[in-house]
Amino acid sequence: MKRRIAIVGAGALGGHVGGYLVKAGQDVTLIDAWPEHVEAMRRDGLTLRGQTGPENFTVPVNAIHITDLQKAGSRPFDIAFVAVKSYDTVWATQMIAQYLAADGYVVSLQNSINEERIASVVGWGKTVGCIASAISVELVGPAKVQRNVALGGSRHTVFRIGEPHGRVPPRAKEIAEMVSVADSSKATTNLWGERWSKLIVNAMRNPVSAATGRGGNGNDRDPMTRWLAIRLAAEAVKVGLAHGYALESVYHIPPEKLLAAGEGDKAAREECEGILLEQVKHRNDEQRPSMGQDIMKGRRTEIDFINGLVAAKGAELKIATPANSGIVETVRRIERGEIAPSAEAVAHI
Q1: What is the C-alpha separation between 238 and 255, in angstroms, rounded?
Q2: What are the CA-CA distances from residue 89 to residues 33, 108, 120 (Å)?
Q3: Does 287 score more than 90 pLDDT?
Q4: What sign has the CA pseudo-torsion 128, 134, 135, 141?
Q5: CB-based burial of residue 44 (10 Å sphere; 0-12 exposed, 13-18 middle, 19+ buried)?
Q6: DSSP label at 164?
Q7: What 8-state DSSP symbol labels residue 68?
Q8: Virtual torsion, Cα 335, 338, 339, 340, nearest 10 deg
Q9: With helix as H, strand as E and coil as C, how does 257-272 read?
Q10: How far apart, in whole angstroms, are the C-alpha atoms of residue 345 and residue 349?
Q11: With 80 as the cut, is the pLDDT of residue 2 above it?
Q12: What is the pTM of this model?
């Protein structure tokens, strides 16, 4: 029998992956809290848009509101992808846990590092991590998901699936094969290093978009915000290395190069800035990191779980993180409505 799959949080990333899994013939139930989104998926199917022809399609899906889960859960789920915001992790995991099969498990398909939160509900033995790196998807309307960057393919591995214990059991390989229908994937022995490396990307991209109100390309073209992104990344690298994570490259930049750039190495800074400017060519000007999308839509951001986490983990080892701490406070002020997003909002950091 096919594995029964739940996507808890069928927004940008959950909807994107879920749509491809359905198209590939998997037995998928999309579970979401936005009624208009669920109703549109039921009525019209789920529409995905991308940069190439094959990425543009509409697929009929089984979508339910969270209030309908009691009815849909009569047959247990084998795999539950949790794809909600970090601050919703625990309640979403608690909700789906009671509908898991005896040997079922939960996959964190999220930003930040939420495996410990999931394990607090279902245990470490039922917890798997799935990193989606440089995918840039957006829920642009009910039942409509748009991807604003090119496919990773052989150039960049998008999905990295790992277990907390660092081994690669069959289920990690199963998930890697499953999500490969959406883009390149691999099972990794380095979940924590991969997680922190993705956190570095989020730390340098998300808050700058949230604080300025601009997309990724606009911020990378501006020397001031481009340099801010590098400093945010350099601090996150320093903290990650100090905690013992085996870090991966960030946009093909070795972590040590980012650290050197942030600490004043002129040649390293020029190289990092050049690579960021090159990245502009691989995404359209509509690309906006998720935290920037949240500010536009008046929603709570994940700032405390991204740059706030960098600052907190730095404080544990008495490592100063002035750029990350500074942008956390700026984004919080924007969330509270005290200031408006603008480039000037981050000029002091």
Answers
A1: 9
A2: 14, 9, 10
A3: no
A4: positive
A5: middle
A6: T
A7: G
A8: 50
A9: HHHHHHCCCHHHHHHH
A10: 9
A11: yes
A12: 0.94
